[in-house]
Amino acid sequence: MNDDQPINSDASEELLSNPDEQVIDAELVHVVDAYEPMYASGAQIIDRLPPPRKRRVVLPVCLLLATCVTTFWMGIVQWRLPPELGASNESLSYFRAFFVPSNWDNGFTYMACILSILFAHEMGHFLMTLRHRIPASLPFFIPLPFISPIGTMGAVIGMDGLRADRKQLFDIGIAGPIAGLVVAVPIIIIGIFKLDLTQNQTGQYELDVPLIMACIMYCVEVPGYEFGMHISQAQLNPYFMAGWVGLLVTGLNMLPMSQLDGGHVTYTLFGKNAHWIARGIILVAMLFVIFGGAHIWMLMLVLIFLMGIDHPPTSDDTVEITPFRRYLGYASLSIPLLCFPPYGIILDF
Fold first, then answer.
1. CB-based contact 143:152 (threshold 8 Å)
2. How far is the C-alpha of 312 from the C-alpha of 23, rounded, in Å?
3. Contact criterion met (CB below 8 Å) for 231 and 201
4. What residue ranges do the domains of the chain occupy?
5. How confident is the model at residue 133 (pLDDT cuts 50, 70, 90)?
6. Tens digits of residue pLDDT in 199-223
7. Whole-angstrom Cα distance, residue 30 to residue 136?
8. Is the distance from CB of 72 to CB of 111 less than 8 angstroms?
């Protein structure tokens, strides 16, 4: 967990059985300590919370630099996973890609695009916490070398969730996905126009294409594309891959459960009725993972259960949200359907 938040103090322990920390966003992973329902009023809780501690700077910067390296590397090797141990010839070829100048263009382009999308997403959250004066950490980017072709597990920021009321939490939750999509959409369009699927190339895996990308590819008539087909790793370009990751991040975060961005939005729209929505979604997700063969999401389900399926209360659930916010929230419920690729990365095909 982040250390930026004033948790585990004597004052907060009197009110909560667990830490009051609330993580508001993680691009492919969320880790959070869920807290018990409060019986004191929001004003009483805020009055008794300790003052926020100073934000950490060195650790977020170091993690950002590390994520630059891992995403740059995955672009250089064209999003290939490292060969198995003992395959000396393949290993040599894999690491030799670093010395091919043309691969550096892929590396820098992918790194710049994916980090721009993730940074915009996190800054959407962070700037909204500044606007509402809710203490929050700087974004913590999560590097992921070699294990995943993406090169990162996204990013996360932490905030004092007990200080945000219903309207403030809505603004903070919705700002990240909107900001991320604003940056991701142009990158996606560039990547789609650079695709050529006429060559029947194979690779280590295929990408399941989100609905909105599939519709755009069909409308612009990408050479060789048929609606519903997957994209091979060997057919990718850095813009398309970064845009795909951006949609994955946004669609995943907008699932209406737990303390994901979608969980924030649905709770502020429907109150405790959002708990039933979250339970229904998690049941469907479990059935899909088990019987639909989408085992790639097993870890995500475990993390959701660790966070807690139900969203905790805000500091004041009685605060009204404006009609514009309500309509925006309703529209945002379509984001997972449009942006989330159900099967993600398909390793065996």
1. yes
2. 12
3. no
4. 10-346
5. very high
6. 777 788 999 999 999 999 999 999 9
7. 16
8. yes
